[in-house]
Design goal:
Elements: H1 2-9, H2 13-20, H3 27-39, H4 48-54, H5 58-66, H6 75-85, H7 92-96, H8 100-229, H9 235-252, H10 263-267, H11 270-278, H12 285-296, E1 302-304, H13 309-318, E2 323-325, H14 332-342, E3 345-348, H15 360-363, E4 368-370, E5 373-378, E6 381-385, E7 390-395, H16 404-407
Parallel strand pairs: 1-7, 2-3, 3-7
Antiparallel strand pairs: 4-5, 5-6
Helix pairs in contact: 1-8, 3-4, 3-6, 3-8, 8-9
């Protein structure tokens, strides 16, 4: 319909007058006026004189075209127009070569017919839509009444639910109080019954603690010696040293110790050893002994670690924030100072048999207390050391030989 209106809007009185005044119009123009006559209800007389008569008053003709009722076109009109519209020459482009007025009338005829065919399909749908909308409005009004009734009922139900919840809460509070009282009574009975047996256990514990006060001397002695001296040796030598020589010497000197004492079990527990294993420590006895030495020693440990098992465990134990350096890299001294002043964990790996003398004050723990903190001289500077600083040294050499002062 918009396309038909646009076609009519392009027409004016002058264009109609020019078309009407043609004495011998092109055949295509006659076809266009014939289509217009049919649309206006003319069944037979479709000649050019009758067409001129139709356009006799151009203004009135244009108004009739503009106001044409495209919704209601008789079937016989559509039938008569069908061969005209479907003819290959009945196009706007073709008519434009003959007459602009004829071209726009041609476009109007085509689009008004197309509009009518669409309208006839849409009108039943529109009527069905209106009926459905009317029914929906009626049902909506009925639904509103029902919803109002439901709302009133829901309000009553909510009020009853609130009363029920309050009653249940009171009931639960009473039951909770009763449960607490029952628990207190049970605990009191257990305490009374337990205290009856505690006297026996406490008496046994006193005797055990009195014994441990004595055996602690030998246990601590063999464990301290284990940490201080036994690290560089293999499993066989270790066993012979502490199990035969040291224990035998303490027995000969009548130093009290726990029968069957094991330095590994004094320095660690099964739970601690399990944690070491999760951190990457191998499960063999020597590795567990080495770990107990590393965690118990006051000096900074040096790991003889050609298979890199020790450094793997240290990294698993200390985490990814541990600083790892080598003495061959540039500016390693600055990184040592940074680790000291920030309380970091420092690993110096791949050292040889010679350790830079700059590290001697640190390795021998020549700390100077200044106020609450300690400082150590690295090179020519005194570096303040944070309390949580840790240092580990590691070598890949299988059988290194260190100077006595380094070993000490």
């Amino acid at each position: 319909m918009k396309a038909a209106e646009d076609a009519v809007a392009c027409l004016d009185v002058k264009a109609i007058q020019e078309l009407k005044s043609l004495a011998n119009p092109p055949p295509d123009c006659v076809v266009v006026t014939k289509a217009c006559l049919i649309l206006k209800g003319e069944k037979k007389n479709h000649g050019w004189p009758n067409a001129q008569k139709m356009m006799n008053n151009p203004k009135a003709f244009l108004e009739s075209v503009q106001k044409y009722d495209g919704n209601n076109i008789a079937d016989w009109i559509l039938k008569d127009l069908d061969p005209i519209i479907n003819h290959e020459s009945f196009t706007f482009e073709n008519m434009l070569k003959k007459s602009s007025a004829a071209a726009n009338l041609c476009k109007w005829v085509i689009n008004i017919v197309i509009y009518n065919s669409i309208y006839k399909k849409v009108k039943p749908l529109m009527e069905s839509s209106e009926a459905a909308e009317k029914l929906a409005n009626e049902k909506g009004a009925e639904l509103a009444i029902v919803l109002e009734k439901v709302r009133v009922i829901v309000e009553k139900v909510d009020a009853l639910k609130k009363m029920l919840e309050e009653a249940v809460a009171k009931k639960q509070a009473v039951e909770d109080d009763a449960g607490k009282l029952q628990l207190n009574l049970s605990l009191a009975n257990r305490l009374v019954n337990g205290l009856a047996d505690e006297n026996v256990r406490w008496t046994a514990n006193v005797k055990m603690f009195e014994l441990e006060k004595l055996t602690m001397i030998g246990n601590a002695l063999v464990s301290a010696a284990f940490v201080s001296y036994i690290g560089p040796f293999n499993s066989v030598f270790r066993q012979d040293l502490w199990k035969e020589q040291w224990i035998g010497d303490m027995t000969a000197k009548a130093i009290p110790f726990t029968e069957g004492v094991d330095p590994l079990n004094v320095l660690s527990t099964d739970a601690i050893q399990a944690v070491w294993k999760t951190e990457g420590l191998p499960a063999d006895r020597v590795s567990l002994e080495n770990a107990s030495i590393v965690t118990a020693c006051s000096r900074y440990p040096l790991l003889i670690d050609p298979q890199l098992q020790g450094i793997k465990w240290i990294k698993g134990k200390e985490g990814s924030e541990m600083m790892v350096i080598t003495l061959s890299q540039d500016k390693w001294q600055k990184r040592v100072e940074h680790a000291l002043s920030n309380g970091m964990v420092l690993m110096i790996e791949s050292i040889g048999e010679h350790i830079d003398p700059l590290l001697d004050p640190l390795l021998s723990r020549q700390f100077v207390k200044k106020g609450k903190n300690f400082s150590v001289k690295i090179g020519s500077e005194d570096i303040e050391m944070m309390p949580n600083f840790k240092l580990f040294l590691q070598t890949k050499l299988i059988n290194p030989h260190y100077k006595p002062e380094t070993a000490a």
